[in-house]
Amino acid sequence: MDNITLFIAGGLLIVGAAVAFIFVFRNYMRTDGRRFRADYSGGKQQYTNAKEKYRVGQKVTLYYGPAATDTVYYFSLDGEKINPEYDDEKGYVIHFTMPAHDITLECTSKNISAVPEESDGE
Question: 113, 49 in Cβ contact below 8 A?
Fold first, then answer.
């Protein structure tokens, strides 16, 4: 490579790094770098990737598992029902963007095999 090509490549690298820094710094300043708490209703250990706090606007992906096959799971975020995807290997996949306040993520479940057996009349 000649010197001009190296000079241009170096300049582009510096400009790219500066632009990336500006976007990160701007987002930090817009939210004051604040992080808010996530309450997992006592079940944090069930969520893979779960953290105590997230930045405002952060895209969060959590995995809930393992899931029992004879159980129905219901999820809510701040009291609003959510319908996560299901992945056969990772369990339930929950996506959300962190709002500018503390959140509560809750999972309740119901065992569907506990239905009483019907009498056959004998």
Answer: no
Cα 12 to Cα 32: distance, rounded to the nearest angstrom: 30
48 and 7 in a single domain? The answer is no
Looking at the structure, tell me whether residues 53 and 106 fall in a common domain.
yes
Contact (Cβ atoms closer than 8 angstroms) between residue 57 and residue 51: no
CATH number for the domain that contains residue 75: 2.60.40
Closest by alpha carbon to 104, among 58, 55, 59, 37?
A: 37
Domain that holds residue 66: 34-113
CA distances to 18, 28, 58, 76, 95 from 103, in Å: 34, 20, 13, 10, 13
Q: For 41-66, how does the pLDDT look when each residue is reduced to its tens digit (9 = 90+)?
A: 999 999 998 999 999 999 999 999 87
Beta bridge partners of 75: 82, 107
Neighbours of 28 (CB within 10 A): 12
